């Protein structure tokens, strides 16, 4: 009897499985705020050069004399230059512009951020972008390496170590004395976060029967949004970045006790020969689900160890598979870069930043509900194409509103950007479900993992796309991120429409040859009656 058969006998998605999905999804309550924190703690507010010799200078104009000094000393529309005017010996007025070394900041939205405390503006603005990027670099490294640690040492040990590091990083960030220290801690935070999410995600999947695993995946998406909403509320009431970081550190501390409620994966224990430990967990699950389970059945459980029979490079030996795999990678990259590019740079849009994020996050919750209810009915390919079309049209519209709409209609750019993010979120969510159906059984985990790595690369690049608004002057600088996002979405849409096959209601490919035939006759619709009969036979054999 296979381990998945045990899950069927335990009720597939009984009370214990539901509790496990809830417990593992709770992790996203903390990972959401951790990823979103840079939006507020590393925010670049409106600023200008500090007036030389004016000790109590503020960004807000104090009186007419203060306004006069600003007009005389600050070049028009400049945040980084000062103007020095003097009269030469011939009585001519001369003016010289030079870079300033200190700034004053608008405190209407943020009383202080790491950027304002360490003056990461103008020539040093790229440092802020680097600090945002390094968290995603940690995630990329973690997702690429820590899955091996989970297989070698177990899911729970990885969870314990990463939870300790995760909480420690939040407390250490409170006392960040300089930029280098913050960069190092944010990298470790991303690394620990990846191990934490990876361990809990795998445990959640390995406790749930195959046909119910979509709920284990989507549950974490919902809690990510809820955690983000909580963080936005914290940031709204706490405008000092160090105080906000203290509150967040306290907020994430309970994850240290997750090991008390989350057990080791029975599947992993069985693959390592720890049958007695696995037996206790399985019997406990049966007891919670109010199901009688014969202890002797556990001795006969067979678990397929995750040994790859095919080398992944074989996916590139056939031109059809090669093109398909590369397009899957690119679509993951495009969706992730667009999603995080808008998410992390929403502060450049007009309107209240807190309200913008609340609306954006609420739309994400709607997105996941729409995907769950409609993807099987409409099809993976159609849903992906619709989402990319919505994203491409909305982001292209941002270009025209920024160039041609009067300033009174800046809100329209914000609306289009949020809709564009909605489309990217939908595409991102669909890819999680679709990618595994495009790879053969022995390469399904590897294919999904490497595709996810492409998404992490997209998130690493995203902050620099937003930085183009600072590094490129003029009107093109304002529209450059939306130009890039629009082109990327249109390209991903075109390639996906032409080359990727529909897999909805088809059997999963088992071999490389099955993958080649996807979209060309392979894949019979799943027969529910046949599956139900097999389950009945399995249960009757167990009772005998």
UniProtKB/TrEMBL annotation:
This is Major facilitator superfamily (MFS) profile domain-containing protein. Residues 41-504 form the Major facilitator superfamily (MFS) profile domain. GO terms for molecular function: transmembrane transporter activity. It is found in: Membrane. It comes from Lottia gigantea (Giant owl limpet). Its main location: membrane. Keywords: Membrane, Transmembrane, Transmembrane helix. Pfam families: Sugar_tr. GO terms for cellular component: membrane. InterPro entries: MFS_dom, MFS_sugar_transport-like, MFS_trans_sf. The chain crosses the membrane at residues 125-146, 180-202, 214-238, 244-262, 321-342, 354-373, 385-405, 411-434, 455-476, 482-500. It is a multi-pass membrane protein. The keyword Transmembrane helix applies.
């Amino acid at each position: 009897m296979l381990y998945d058969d045990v899950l069927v006998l335990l009720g597939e998605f009984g009370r214990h499985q539901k509790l496990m999905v809830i417990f593992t999804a709770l992790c996203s309550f903390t990972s959401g705020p951790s990823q979103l924190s840079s939006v507020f703690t590393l925010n670049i507010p409106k600023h200008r050069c500090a007036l030389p010799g004016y000790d109590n200078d503020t960004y807000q104009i104090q009186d007419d004399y203060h306004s006069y000094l600003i007009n005389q000393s600050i070049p028009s529309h400049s945040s980084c230059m000062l103007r020095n005017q003097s009269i030469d010996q011939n009585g001519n007025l001369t003016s010289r512009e030079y870079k300033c070394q200190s700034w004053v900041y608008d405190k209407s939205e943020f009383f202080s951020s790491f950027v304002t405390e360490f003056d990461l503006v103008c020539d040093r603005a790229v440092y802020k972008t680097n600090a945002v990027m390094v968290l995603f670099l940690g995630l990329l490294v973690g997702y690429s390496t820590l899955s091996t640690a989970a297989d070698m040492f177990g899911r729970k040990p990885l969870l314990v170590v990463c939870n300790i590091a995760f909480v420690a990083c939040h407390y250490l960030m409170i006392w960040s004395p300089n930029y280098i220290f913050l960069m190092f801690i944010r990298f470790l935070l991303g690394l620990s976060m990846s191990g934490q999410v990876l361990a809990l995600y795998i445990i959640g999947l390995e406790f749930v029967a195959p046909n119910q695993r979509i709920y284990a995946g989507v549950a974490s998406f919902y809690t990510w949004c809820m955690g983000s909403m909580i963080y936005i509320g914290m940031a709204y009431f706490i405008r000092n970045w160090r105080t906000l970081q203290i509150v967040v550190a306290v907020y994430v501390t309970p994850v240290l006790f997750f090991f008390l409620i989350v057990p080791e994966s029975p599947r992993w224990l069985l693959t390592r020969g720890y049958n007695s430990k696995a037996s206790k967990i399985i019997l406990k699950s049966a007891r919670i689900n109010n199901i009688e389970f014969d202890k002797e059945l556990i001795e006969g459980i067979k678990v397929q160890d995750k040994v790859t029979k095919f080398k992944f490079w074989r996916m590139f030996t056939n031109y059809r598979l090669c093109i398909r795999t590369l397009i899957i990678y690119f679509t993951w990259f495009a969706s992730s870069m667009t999603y995080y590019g808008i998410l992390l740079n929403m502060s450049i849009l007009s309107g209240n930043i807190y309200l913008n994020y609340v609306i954006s996050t609420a739309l994400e919750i709607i997105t996941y509900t729409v995907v769950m209810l409609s993807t099987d009915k409409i099809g993976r390919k159609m849903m992906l194409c619709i989402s990319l079309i919505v994203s491409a049209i909305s982001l292209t519209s941002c270009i025209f509103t920024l160039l041609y709409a009067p300033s009174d209609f800046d809100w329209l750019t914000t609306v289009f950007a949020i809709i564009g993010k909605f489309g990217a979120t939908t595409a991102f969510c669909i890819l999680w479900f679709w990618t595994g159906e495009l790879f053969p059984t022995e390469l399904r985990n590897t294919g999904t993992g490497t595709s996810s790595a492409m998404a992490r690369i997209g998130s690493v690049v995203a902050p620099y796309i937003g930085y183009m608004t600072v590094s490129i002057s003029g009107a093109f600088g304002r529209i450059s991120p939306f130009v890039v996002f629009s082109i990327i979405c249109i390209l991903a849409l075109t390639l996906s429409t032409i080359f990727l096959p529909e897999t909805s209601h088809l059997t999963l490919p088992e071999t490389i040859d099955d993958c080649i035939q996807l979209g060309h006759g392979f894949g019979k619709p799943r027969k529910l009656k046949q599956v139900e009969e097999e389950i009945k036979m399995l249960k009757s054999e167990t009772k005998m």
